[in-house]
Design a protein that fits this description.
- The chain is of the alpha+beta class.
- Helix content is about 45%, strand content about 25%.
- Strands 1-2-3-4 form a 4-stranded antiparallel beta sheet.
- A hairpin with a 2-residue loop joins strand 1 and strand 2.
């Protein structure tokens, strides 16, 4: 697999599609395009681990598929819990100050039963904000 290559997998009978948007020896980025959109996951290999792993190998293919599955799980949770997440957003962000780290921590800790990676938090907030009309 290379950059800008479409990838897909089946999760619980649902076809999930994504694109590897960036791929180098040390970094990989995957964007989910179906059945959800608006989420891009990233992973990095520190310099001291590069002699052992590289995203340009089969290891990168495996990581890309794992990122796609994680994005699919997060997207499914967001879609299934829209009303709850909209309410939580209004409770935790005062005066629409979405960059406040304390408010973000409260929102994510009380809204998700799993850890949302830091690199995805702004993307999740943007998705939920877009529902507010």
């Amino acid at each position: 697999m290379s950059s800008n290559q479409e990838i897909s997998t089946t999760i619980d009978g649902l076809i999930v599609k994504g694109i590897i948007t960036f791929r180098s020896e040390s970094d990989i980025s995957v964007k989910i395009i179906s059945p959800f959109s608006g989420l891009t996951g990233r992973q990095h290999i520190p310099y001291f681990s590069r002699p052992y792993n590289s995203y340009l190998t089969d290891y990168g293919d495996t990581v890309a598929m794992n990122l796609l599955k994680q994005l699919s799980d997060l997207g499914a949770y967001i879609n299934e819990n829209q009303a709850f997440l909209k309410l939580q957003l209004s409770l935790h962000f005062y005066d629409c100050e979405y960059s406040n780290e304390e408010s973000q921590k409260r929102f994510f800790d009380s809204s998700f039963p799993f850890l949302v990676p830091y690199s995805l938090k702004d993307q999740v907030v943007e998705i939920v904000k877009s529902w507010r009309g």
